[in-house]
Write a structure and sequence with these properties.
DNA-binding; Arc Repressor Mutant, subunit A; elongated; 2 domains; homodimer
Chain lengths: ~180, ~180
DNA sequence: AGGAGCATGTAAGCGGTTACATGATTTA
DNA sequence: TAAATCATGTAACCGCTTACATGCTCCT
């Protein structure tokens, strides 16, 4: 699922500007992924050329002009097609796993520091997700909420697994010192 | 951690050709990530220019000639630096989550099919990891094995969470039919 | 007067994939 | 003799980020 399908997905719900799309995405998905203007605006132009969305220029006196994009029937069809494309296998290309893989080249102290630091990072993300819960409960549909809960569990599991790694490192260090 | 650091990491252990590097990576990391020749060979040339690795041409009669790369002292230093760079926050950019987020646009049958299909995919990956266990136990160091176990737990957790999503979908469908 | 927020965009570059191209040797 | 494995590489392209550039309005 590329960026274009995601933009179409949001436009299924409502017509918006590129700016709005970025906001909508950030609110719903800040914990999973980011989207920058540098990819949004070119994507919108391309999709307009392909007839997946249509543009309406709104001239305003109380602010900068806006380009409001609306999904077309062709766009809706393209979006549904994209939803139905078989999923690729998930590859958790985690930078952390890469580090762990080469831990033998670091000192015990450095290893500990990396894992503990990463762990606190993950826990912080999880806390932030919990803070955002009421807002998500308010605006998300049931599937989007399912998505949110899935994410929460993901980070909980990650926390638990990282704690286990910390334990393993502790034990090994003790044995080394014997 | 980019591709170059990973290649350096493998070269820390032993001198190898580009072909060998791809194999080494595939064996250790097939479940997490892939690496193609289209990125390996240019990366090796670049790193040679930068003095991070050195090349030795081996002319053979019993097969194609090989370019064997060896990490230099500068390369070792660069690798350790890369290991110590603070980790970015993990973003589980899962294509599955994106689908789930827009599930409202699909029929209950299609939703079920996607999740169940994905679930079987994940379970299959997990099975393959378990099959590979003896080989990994044989060749991996303790941190690499920690890595393997971490991955296993990741897929177990994913399986569990997906099963929960299936349950949620089932319940909602039942309620809808009332 | 200055900063935050609204709004749109471009250019350069990074990191990577896919498909293509070549050619040798070993195994079935 | 065909297929698999060994071995190296290029060209075109994709998707995305970062940094830059512009300019307006509202609030303090």
């Amino acid at each position: 699922m590329d960026i274009r399908s995601i933009l179409l997905g949001f436009l299924m719900h409502d017509s918006m500007t590129g700016y709005d799309l970025k906001k909508a995405f950030s609110i719903s998905f800040s914990f999973f992924s980011g989207l920058s203007y540098g990819s949004i605006y070119p994507a919108l132009r391309k999709m307009e050329k392909q007839g997946l969305i249509s543009k309406r220029l709104e001239i305003r006196s109380d602010g900068p002009n806006r380009k409001i994009y609306t999904i077309t029937d062709a766009g809706k069809a393209a979006f549904l097609d994209a939803l139905r494309v078989p999923l690729p296998r998930d590859q958790p290309k985690s930078p952390f796993l890469m580090r762990l893989f080469f831990f033998t080249h670091l000192s015990p102290e450095e290893r500990q520091a990396i894992v503990v630091n990463y762990l606190s990072f993950v826990e912080e993300t999880r806390r932030q997700m919990e803070i955002a819960r009421p807002e998500i409960e308010a605006r998300a549909d049931r599937f989007q909420f399912l998505c949110y809960e899935f994410g929460l569990r993901f980070f909980s599991d990650l926390t638990r697994n990282l704690a286990q790694v910390v334990d393993s490192l502790d034990e090994e260090e003790k044995e080394e010192r014997k």
